[in-house]
Design brief:
This is Iron chelate uptake ABC transporter family permease subunit. It is found in: Cell membrane. About 75% of the residues lie in helices and about 0% in strands. The chain is mostly helical.
Length: about 325
């Protein structure tokens, strides 16, 4: 419990920094007046931009962290990530199609195509990777192939249709910049339901991590657990991707860090991921806003720059070693 309390303090610090720092420099007193005084010139900046952006980062980070930990357990692949296995690419391809064909340009129109695309690609990647006999290498290869194909499709749509290019050029890099109160209230039910379902599945996932035979011996039904987990991952990733575009490496990095602190027990891994993943995402977003003032670097770019070396580190460290999930 002490560790969770410290993680919660880190999250509180990340939330404060996300509200207090941005592309426009504000003093702490100006930020406070912007929070409390509707007559303050900083009030629109804080309430219409920074608060929604911070809350959206909290929700999306939690969703991606939980989805990454669940995928790594379900696939028994330590390198599984919603981005690396093509889940985000499926959501992005579906959103690109909705924008191109139906002229959709807001979150309300993105959410259902994103959920459908994430679900279809998650199932396709698992089947192509070998289903129940899938190995980590085959799943990674299937995800890489799907990622390449789907993001090539998204790029083609943006090149062929100028309206899609204008609507999606920032979204495809992964960004919290377009966060609005309406987006937060729309995404909250989907991610909230996914968070509750993920935490409920912690104990069954512990059994599944031991292998299908061991799970059956403990009275669990591996096929049902696996299907429910994939459904929850689809819900979390689809909603998160619809809200701010595809963001990679957060779902890969945070579960590894958490397991080094807690061990493999999902009853601890998932709560820690739910707290520490938004710390990483909000920290990356703050960094992107500060280093390029008065502009900003999109959060998806920052997480890629940070996550790439981390991914290589885990890949090299795990080479030739058994993976404990």
């Amino acid at each position: 419990m002490t560790g969770l309390a410290l993680a919660a303090l880190l999250l509180a610090l990340a939330l404060v920094l996300s509200i207090g720092l941005g592309a426009r420099a504000l003093s702490p007193s100006e930020v406070w007046r912007g929070l409390t005084d509707p007559a303050s010139p900083a009030y629109p900046v804080v309430h219409r931009m920074r608060l929604p952006r911070t809350v959206l980062g909290l929700l999306v980070g939690t969703a991606i962290g939980l989805a990454g930990a669940m995928l790594q357990t379900v696939t028994r692949n330590p390198l599984a990530d919603p981005g690396l296995l093509g889940v985000n690419a499926g959501a992005a391809a579906a959103v690109a199609t909705a924008t191109w064909v139906f002229g959709v340009t807001d979150f309300g129109g993105y959410i259902w195509p994103a959920l459908l695309g994430a679900g279809v690609v998650t199932a396709a990647g698992y089947v192509v990777g070998g289903g129940r006999s899938a190995t980590p290498a085959r799943l990674a290869l299937a995800g890489a192939a799907l990622n390449a194909a789907l993001f090539s499709y998204v790029s083609a749509v943006m090149l062929l249709d100028s309206k899609s290019l204008e609507a999606m050029r920032f979204w495809t890099t992964g960004s919290l910049a377009s966060a609005a109160p309406a987006t937060v209230t729309s995404v909250l039910p989907f991610i909230g339901a996914g968070i509750v379902a993920a935490l409920v599945l912690a104990r069954p996932l512990n059994a599944l991590a031991l292998g299908d035979d061991a799970a059956r011996a403990l009275g669990s039904r591996p096929a049902v657990i696996r299907a429910a987990s994939i459904g929850v991952v689809t819900l979390l990733c689809g909603a998160a991707t619809a809200a701010c575009g595809p963001i990679v490496f957060v779902g890969l990095t945070v579960p590894h860090i958490v397991r080094s602190l807690t061990g493999p027990d999902l009853r601890w891994v998932l709560p820690y991921c739910a707290i520490l993943a938004p710390v990483l995402l909000l920290g990356a977003d703050v960094l992107g806003r500060v280093v390029a003032r008065p502009g900003e670097v999109q959060v998806g770019v920052v997480t890629s720059v940070v996550g790439g070396p981390v991914f290589l580190y885990f890949l090299l460290r795990r080479r030739g070693k058994a993976v404990r999930l």
